[in-house]
Every structure is written in structure tokens, then in C-alpha cells.
Amino acid sequence: MLPAAGGEDEEKWLAEGIAGLQQNAFYMHRSLDSNNLRDALKYSAQMLSELRTSRLSPHKYYELYMRAFDELRKLEMFFKEETMKGCSVIDLYELVQHAGNILPRLYLLCTVGSVYIKSKEAPAKDILKDLVEMCRGIQHPVRGLFLRSYLSQISKDKLPDIGSEYEGDSDSFIDAVEFVLQNFTEMNKLWVRMQHQGPAREKEKREKERSELRDLVGKNLHVLSQIDGIDLDMYKDTVLPRVLEQVVNCKDEIAQHYLMDCIIQVFPDEYHLQTLEILLGACPQLQPTVDIMIVLSQLMDRLSIYAASSAEILPEFLQVEAFAKLSNAIGKVIDFQPEMPIVSAISLYVSLLTFTLRVHPDRLDFVDQVLGACVKKLSGRPKIEDNKATKQIVALLSAPVEKYKDIDTALKLSNFPRVMDHLDNATKKVMAVVIIQSIMKNITYISTSDKVEALFVLIQGLMKDMDGTQDEELDEEDFKEEQNSVARLIHMLYNDDPEQMLEIIRTVRDHILIGGPKRLAFTVPPLIFSALKLVRRLQVHEADEIDEDATTTPKKIFQILSQTIEALSSVPSSELALRLYLQCAETANDCDLEPVAYEFLTRAFILYEEEVADSKAQVTAIHLIIGTLQRMNAFGVENRDTLTHKATGYSAKLLKKPDQCRAVYACSHLFWVENQDGIKDGERVLLCLKRALRIANAAQQMVNVTRGSSGPATLYVEILNKYLYYFEKGNPQITSSAIEGLIELIMTEMQSDNPPSDPSTDAFLSSTMRYIQFQKQKGGVMGEKYQPIKV
Amino acid sequence: MVLVLALGDLHIPHRAPDLPAKFMSMLVPGKIHHILCTGNLCIKEIYDYLKGLCPDLHVTRGEYDEDVHYPETKTLTIGQFKLGLCHGHQVIPWGDLDSLAMLQRQLDVDILVTGHTHQFKAYKHEGGVVINPGSATGAFSSITYDVNPSFVLMDIDGLRVVVYVYELVDGEVKVDKIDFKKTAAPQPAP
């Protein structure tokens, strides 16, 4: 018997085999047609001899086998007809054993056996026992597997199962089980033997061929699962232990992996749940090369789905302590294989965690336990470098975050931060982002300073420079994105109760102040505004109930704010700090805290004086100061005077004349506030407007005077509009003749051809004049006021 | 029918984490023809988001905007209307309608869109209309107490503009509308 060789040769041999088979089949049919039993047997034996070849790979052998199979069906039908005509099936059974070679003999025997069982002249169990024993005669793996597969196929509908017509006396289903188990065991042995046949260099080819044959072996398990007579007890006491015994003892990686998988797929989940200990007990005994993770996660997957299928099933899981058993089994597997790479161990825990979150989501202790087991495995090792392992740890940590939409729950897992500790800094940041995204997506609020503290520990990689990080690596855009997400997060830290909220604010303040100058510009503003919202709430409620014992006061909060904004000087971020001081000033003003408001405004001025150098920035800053000051009513006369004097002074000192002009006339509003007790100093208003006019005039005198929107003509029109504003408000210092004079001045200025006037200024003047006309025609008080103005 | 979205003072991430979910689900790309944003986005992410809603995006500078190069004011013509855009912190007293009317005359526009106070306003006077879309995120304001998130959608059709204001009150979106008709442009004085 020559071993199978190259592909082309194989095709040739297969063709030869098929040809031989078909030829003998032809003669066999002719013999059948002429009722010549002896000849039929002779030719069928010859036909089956083609299956004696060793030259074909399993794939090709299968083709030959299928053709033989088809022919044997017809032969079987003939046998049946013969027995119905009076021929004894027992005689037939004996007759076919005269075939020369053992393989054809056994195929024929099985075929007659099928008829024999159907005739019921002997118990099915006896015939089956006989056949399964006889098949031992073929020890060649491929031939043996196909033969036994044939036996399995023709017998599967004739097993003496409960309720079957072949049942015979009671409990014969035990014999059916025994039959299938024996066939299975023998087939597995043959299958495993293939691994060791042939030279070492052909191992890969052999393994591929084995893989092609695996379903032949697995089919037996499927047949077992269909036997009605097997109940849970029999499965537990007999079937599973026998199958597992074979699986473990064969010590073959391919067989073990495939068969464990088969067992899990083929038998009901109910059985698995009740035999968990036995099934899991086999796992540590398997070959170390078997990927136990896949096997176990398959099992846990099925059990998760089973648990979800009905509400009554879940208590069963608790009753059999499914979690504990799985947890122990995984622990054992990991312990038995100290060489197991860390990524595999973590993957096992990820699988277990997935199971736990699906089946026992309410049992945080279970979840924490899984994380704890992981911590134990990771402890004593250096920080994880392996990318795959890192990814698995991120998956492990992300699972509870995703499952429990409220981050509060994840924060309760004591082992969560411990697992995080084992990540390198870059991955810690990845996890931090996962956590923040979950909070933002689910709009969950973190409501106590303790929880905030716990959360910040988890995301500390984002909040400060960790030891050993070289942050120059980090892209500026990425850094900004990171910090902006931290900023957004700060808005999710909230509690209705002022005491609690203040604690939260303090905690946040403590953490951001050690974040380093690069981060402050991002993290300080959201904290400030969060705190100002609290101040506003206190202020509004103070009107309702005055709580003498309240320890949370606006004053305390302003202290914290002051200190926090000051930290921005280390960045430095003066323009931002100036704006924040102004916000605080205004809010303090609304609380009637005059000294606090004064202090904030003073600081804003100091920053303006000393830090804001860019001329454009100065223009914006001074307008913000004027706008804020204009709204503030908490100041006594002296303080107010000091501040307005400063504001007007700085306005007049801006770099460019048009900017000076505009700032100064803006200052006029500092002396005229429309609400009841607001200041209405008409004289000082007029002084400002006149000063603005002088500046506009001076701008005109300058060589290379600017045109267009900052030209003196435009400035005059703007000031004219301000005159009209105060005129309408009833400032006695603004007279109709003053207005007329100003209009005349503008007209003169505009009519000078050198340089020609700007169209936008023209339009502005036109609309202003239209406005005056409109007001004159209005009638009533306004119309009367405007009446004297001649245009 | 030209749809113009007016919004501003989002103050993300300084004062608010995000636009309200209900607003975001209403604002879908492809429906709006122009966006006028009063300013204080504050970060580029928000600019990109708005640009994704509508490529014709106009932004004026708010005092907290990360990008300092947005213009102080902007004017554009849509149909029969001239529109002006300005954040509003430059116009003192803040929120004062007469002072805003002056800016409107200066820019020579029919509709002035301005913000800063975080309070929705739609005010008609002889010179035209002043609209404040409020704060789209309901951000804290030292000027206005109890800010509800709001934005404005203008439907410009010939000489008529319908101003829809969307406000988020107690978790529900409320809509109101105001009609404005422009009289035909007066003849220029000889």
C-alpha cells in the first residue's frame, strides 16, 4: 500500500477508483435484475474493494465513499425484497461474511444488519453490539472512520430508544447509548491516531486532513443528543463522564478543542448549567495548547442567552452557583498553566466579566470579584507593555462602564482603580476618555465630593502630568481636545444642596490647581461659572429664607474664586483672568457685597494696566470694564467715582484716536443709568461727549487722517447719535441747539471734497437724519421734544 | 423661502457641556440656508459642527471666543433684507435697545442680530428689527437670571420675515413666532 502522494496523481487514482466502482456496480445491478444473489454479492464485494485504497486524501476518499453509499442503498432495498420473498435474513447475514476482504465484508454486514434490525427477528441492541464490535477489524484511520460513519448513518433511525419501534424490553435505550458511546470512542481513537502517522514534516497536511474528518466524529455526539431516553441524570452520571473521559484521555489538542466545542453546542443549556462542575472540571486537564478561552467563552455565551430567555431560569443560576464555579474553573486553568501569556489570562477574565454583566448585573460583588482576580494576576508584574494585553484590559474596564450607564456604579467597584493602576500612562488616558464619554453620553451627574474624588483618581492622567510622561509627544490639537472634555465634565459635577456643591467645588479646585499651567486655561473657567451659578442660587434663595446657620455663603465662594483666578497668572492668561474677575464683580454686586465687588474690579484694572498690552485687546478689555461698571449699583459714591475716573482715564489713553473717542463716549453711560435709583448726572455725561468730540476733532487734524468707518465724520455721526440718546432721555444739558450745531459740523465735514466722503458714513448720516424726522413726526411727547430741531 | 438660523452665546465648554439634546435633534444639515452666529462658541469644535449644519456660516467675535480673528461686525444681504451681525459686548449699555438701534443705523441694516445678554428679544422700531437669539445652551449670564436655551429661525420671503423663536422650557421645546414686514425702500434724498 503506497502512501498518498501529489494532487495530480490523486485525481488519477480517484478517477480510477470511481471507474472501478462504477463498473462493478453495473455488473452488480445486472445480477440484481436477474435475481442472482451470489453474483450480486460477488460484484458488490469487488465494488467495495475500491474503498480499500490508502492513496486518497480524506476529501477524495469521501467522493468515492458517497458513490459506494448510493449503490449500497440499492443493494439494501434488494435485500429487503429478498427477505420479504422468504429469504432468511439470518442466512443473509451469514452469507455476506464470506466476502474475501474484511472491509467489503463489514460494509455488507452493516447493510444486511440494517435489514435485520428492521425485520425485528432479533433485538436491535444485539445486532448493533455485534456490528460495533466487528468494526474493530479496521484499524486504518481513514477507512475505519468512514466505515463507522456508515454504521452510524444506517443505524441512527433504528436505535432502541424510548418510544421507538425497536425498543424491545425496558431500558434498552441504555444499550442504544452504549452503542453510540462505543462507536464514538473508537472513532475518536482512530481520528487521534492520524496525528502520529507519517513524517513530521507533513504534520500540517495531516492536521488539515484531520480537520476535514472531524464532523464524522462529532456526529456521534449529535446522535446522542437526540436519544430521548437520556434524561438529565443519565447525562450527568453516564453520558457526559464517558465522553469527557475520552476527550481528556486522548490527550490530543485538535480532538479536545473540537469535542469540547461540540459538547457545548449539541447538548441543551439546561444540562450544561446542571453539570457545570463536571464540564469545567475537565478544563484544567486538557492539553495546555488548547485555547480554553474560546471553549469557555462559548459556554458562557450560551449560558448568558439561556439566562435571558426566561425569568425563572435566573434563580437556577444562583442555586447552582454558576458564577462561583466558572470563576474557580478559570482560576484553576490559569494556575495550572503558569506559562500562559498574560493576554490570554485577561481575555478569560473579559469573557467571565461579560457573562457576569449579562447574567448577574445586579451583583456588583461578582463584578468586583472578577476585577479583583485580574488585579491578583497582574500584581507583581511590571506595567503591561503588550499591546494586545493592554487592549484586553481596556475592554475589561470599559465593559462595566458601558453596562452601568450611571458612572456611580462603576465607581463603587473597589478593584476598578486597582486594575487601572497596571496600565501605562497612555492607556490610562484612553480609559479616562472612555469614562468621560460615557458620562457625557448618558448625561449622568456626579453628586458628591467623594465620588468626584474617586472619579478624578481614575482620570488623573488627563488632569496632571504623570510621573515619567514626556508630554512633548502629545499633539497640541489632541491636548486641547482632552482638556476640553475635562472642561465639559466639570459641568456634570453637581448637587442641588449648596453644602454638597461647595464641597464639590473645593475638590475640583484642589485638583485643577495641581494640573499645571498648560491645563489651567481650560479647567478654571468651567469651575468659576459652576461656582457663580451656585452663588446666584444662594442669592435668589436668600430672598426667600434667611438661614443663619448656613455655612455656605457667597462670600466664601468668592474667596475660592479669587484664589482660583489668581492661579491663571502662572499660565499666564491675563485676558481670561480679567474677564473672570469682571464676571465675579458683577455677581458680587448682585449680592450687595460692595467690598468684594470692588476688590474684583480693582484686580481687573491691575491686569489691564500691567498685562494687557495688545491695543486691540485693550479696546475690548476697556469696553468690558465699562460695560460691567455701568451695570453695578452696589458702590457708594467714593468707590464709584474712583472706578469711573480710572475707566475714563484709560479710555482716553488708548492707542488710536478713534478707539479713544468711542471708549470715552461709552463712558458717558457710566453717569446715566436708567433704573430708578440710578445715577443721572447730565453734566458729566455732556463732559464725556464733549471730550469725545475733541478727540474726534484731533483725529481730523492728524496728517494722513483715516477715512471710512473710523474717519472723523463717522465719529461725529456716532457722537450725534449719543446726543440724541441723552436728549430723548431728558438730559437737560443736551439742547436742541447743541444737536443742530453738531449736525452742521458734520455737514461741513462731509461736504469737503478733500478727501471725499465715505459711502457708509453717508448712509449712517442719512439713517440718522431719517430717524430725527421720524421722531419729529411721531407726535406726542417725543414729537414735541424734537420739534425745535431744524434740519 | 430662505431659512436663516440665528444663534449664539453657547459658551462651550466654559459654561455649558453641550447643546441641549432636543435642539441637536432638530438642527439637521441641509435644511438651513444661512447661519448667523453672534459669537462665544467658544471652541473650534462648535464652529465645525455649525459649518456641518450649513456651509454659509457667519460668525462675529464674542469676548470668550478661542479664535480671535472673527470680525467685530458683519453685514450681508439675503433677498430683500440687509442683515447685520454683532456679538453686542461692544455696545454699551449692554442690551440697551436705543444703543443697539444706533448700531443698526450705523450698519444700515433692516435686521440686526446681536447677543451677549443671553435673553431672547425681537424688537421692532422705525429703523427695522433687532433680534437677540439668546443663548443656545442656556449658559450662565451675569446679566440675565434664569436663562432658558433658545435660538431663532428666520424665514425670509420677499418683503416679509417670520421670526420663529425656539425655547427649551422645563425640558419641552416651545415655539413662538413674530411677523415683520418691510416697507419698500424709501427713495434716496436728492
Automatic annotation (TrEMBL), chain A:
Gene3D superfamilies assigned: Vacuolar protein sorting-associated protein 35, helical subcomplex Vps35-C
Indicate where this protein resides in the cell. Answer: Membrane
Membrane-topology descriptor:
Peripheral membrane protein
Q: Which UniProt keywords apply?
A: Membrane, Protein transport, Transport
Q: Which Pfam families match?
A: Vps35 (PF03635)
What is the stated purpose of this protein?
Plays a role in vesicular protein sorting.
Family, as annotated: Belongs to the VPS35 family.
Q: Report what the protein is called.
A: Vacuolar protein sorting-associated protein 35
Species whose genome carries this gene: Platanthera guangdongensis
UniProtKB/TrEMBL annotation, chain B:
**Domain of life of the organism encoding this protein:** Eukaryota
Keywords, alphabetical: Protein transport, Transport
SUPFAM superfamilies referenced in this protein's UniProt entry, alphabetically? Metallo-dependent phosphatases
What InterPro entries does this protein map onto? Calcineurin-like_PHP_lpxH, Metallo-depent_PP-like, Phosphodiesterase_MJ0936/Vps29, Vps29
Keyword Amino-acid biosynthesis found? no
Q: Does the keyword Protein transport apply?
A: yes
List residues of the Calcineurin-like phosphoesterase domain.
4-157
Q: Which Gene3D superfamilies match?
A: 3.60.21.10
Q: What NCBIfam families does the annotation carry?
A: yfcE
Q: Which family does it belong to?
A: Belongs to the VPS29 family.
Cross-referenced PANTHER family: VACUOLAR SORTING PROTEIN VPS29
Give the protein name, as stated in the record. Vacuolar protein sorting-associated protein 29
